[in-house]
Every structure is written in structure tokens, then in C-alpha cells.
Hints:
413 residues; alpha/beta; Nucleotidyltransferase, domain 5; 3 domains; five-stranded mixed sheet; 19 helices; 7 strands; 59% helix; globular
Amino acid sequence: MKVSCGIDWASDHHDAAIVDNTGSLLAKARIDDTAEGLAELLQLLAEHGDTAEAPVPVAIETSRGLLVACLRAAGRPVYAINPMAAARYRDRHAVSRKKSDHLDAMVLANILRTDAAAHRQLPADTELAQAVAVLARAQQNAVWDRTQAANKLTSHLREYFPGFLAAVGVRREGVCHPIARTLLAAAPTPVQAARLTRAQLRSLLKKAGRKNTLDAEADRLHAALRLPQMRQLPLVEQAMGRQTLALLRQMEAACTSADDLAEAAVESFEKHPDAEIITSFPGLGTLSGARVLAEIGDDRSRFADAKGLKAYAGSAPITRASGKNMAVLARRVKNQRLAGVGYMWAFAAMSHSDGARAHYDRRREAGDRHTAAQRNLFNRMLGCLHHCLTRRVCYSETVAFPAPSDAQLTEAA
């Protein structure tokens, strides 16, 4: 690597520094976060040997933004350096702990000069894979927003309308269920709920999409909403009802966003050539498969082997050894989104794969807790996924979990 570039980014401008293989500063510039600024940066790189055949690598403290997207689209290797790592490198160049944007850009450039092999280049994912990543992550964010809004609404209802929670609590979705949302919009206070007739309840159930046993459900709600409960003062109760409608509108928006983004993520995911392989695994549907693809991408050179993928997902344990002391611990630094979908994947796989269930049971018998056994199963499934994606084959139960040999059965007995 003869020349390397470091960019200290900000919201409206960026500081760039170019150094040679001895660490000497060749050029520096402050560019705007505009098309003109990008052109100025590209011109600066071209003046110092940047070509299509040998592009100058760039280090920057983020993996997102228009500047990063344009540099990646132009075919330049971009390294996203963790800000905590960059802060520790800074002490190597200035023990006085001084700091400036120009110095930070030089530090980033020198990281590539000395330790490029220790850092991960941003993957060369296809345009479709990047689109799936945007939609899948946005959908997951919307789900988190929906959960937060539902928790706020539930907490608020406990303060003045616990009877409503008791009436709709039989449903797994709670206040997020369409019936609960429709009822609450029509009657946000205990007084209004108690005044609902069976005919009105039946109409609201129809509006919420209920088709079967309307009369029985209307009778149940009619009785449940009239049960005695503690009450706030009338004016206070009315004010809290208005607050409920405001919280309900926020939750409705989050529910709509989550549903719309889920549909868009699934639609894009199904167009990807890896979709058939990913969804062939037990426990992975189209939405969870889209989340997996969003985090691992489709650049097969990103992970040299399955171990790298497992470490990235946090399913592989980490060993800490010093002298005679050794501890094997769960990995904390990981891709949290991929780890989150991994637990759901492992839990669902146990219901659709006899081999996965047997693997989980063996780990439990060996002394693992539920979470550790799930993580171990996720680790096993990730290894199978890496194998299938690399060789372009679908999942096979007999290959992933082969039947034990006679010798193994005899030893176990």
C-alpha cells in the first residue's frame, strides 16, 4: 500500500488527509458534504495515484452516508474504523492528547498504512442486497418503535382503565391487536366503554376484521367492560382518555410502518438469488431471512470461513486465558441485529427440525442453560448456512444433522 487516505467526517464538511507508506503527509483538504466536495476529493486522490486498477483505500469512522456510498460505488476500498479504535490510535501520534479534525484524518490514514489487515473492508454487496438491508433494518426499527409505543400505552391504561387490559389481555398481541386498537379508539374511557351495546361491539369487531363467533365475543366484551374497577375522578379520567387517543395514534403509525416495511422487505428479498437457499433452512421465513441477508450481505469474500461469520454474529464463544486461568465466555461485541434474529431462528428451528431439537436437547443435558443451548444451535446453523451459500446448495437435514453411527450409539449406551 503506497498511499492511503483518511477522512474525518462531520455533518456539513469533511477533513481528508493523504499519507504515503512512510507516514508523511502528502495532501490535506477540507471538503463540503456536496457533489462539489466529492469531486474535489476524487481529484485529490487522482493526483496521488488513484486509478481504477489501483484505487487508493479510504478509512472513515462510519459505514453510512452519501460520501461512503459514492466512494463504494466508485470501486474504492472503504474501511469503517470504529471510533473507539481510532481514539486509541490517536495516542500513538500525540501523547499530549491534543485533538483536531486534521489530526484525526491523519490518524485514520495511518491506521490503513500500518494495520489495514487488522480491519475489515466494507463488503462489496450488490445493489439489491443493500436495498434489502435498508428495508429489513427499517422494519426492525419500526417493530421496536411499535413495542415501545405499546408499552407506553399499556402503562398509561393501567393508571385509569385496567378493565380494558383485562378484557383484551387474552390475546397475545395485547393492545397491538386490531380489535384492541379499534375498541380503544371508539371508547378510550371506562364510561364510554361501559355504554357500548352488544350491537356496537359486534360492529366494532367486524371493523377490526373479526369474522367468526362475533356474538360470543361481543357478549364476552360486553360483560368484561362492565366489571367494577377503581376509577379516577371524572375530569381526570376524561383527560387521560384524550392522552390515550394521542398514544394510540402513535402506536397506529408504528404498526402501519412495520407492516408496510415488512411487505417491502419480503418483496425485495424474494428477488434475491440467495433467498431460496436461506429460506430452505428450518425456522427461517421470508422476513427473518431478509434480516439475515441484510446483515451478512451477498459478498462471499466477506467471511473467509464459517468461523468469521460465527464471530460476527456473536454465536461463537470467546476464550480468555492467562497463565493457568482460562474462561470461555459468551461474545459481547457482535452484530446485535444478527444475534437477535439468531435466537428466533434457533427457537423456530426446534419445531421444524428433528436434528435441531436433538442438538438443543444434547446441549441442555450437557449443562447449558436455555439461552446458551439456543446460541450453540444458532452457531451450528450458521456454519451450515455458510456452507450452503458458498456452494450454492439448499439445506439438507441429513447433511446438517447426520444420524449417529453404530459405534457412537454403542459408546453412548
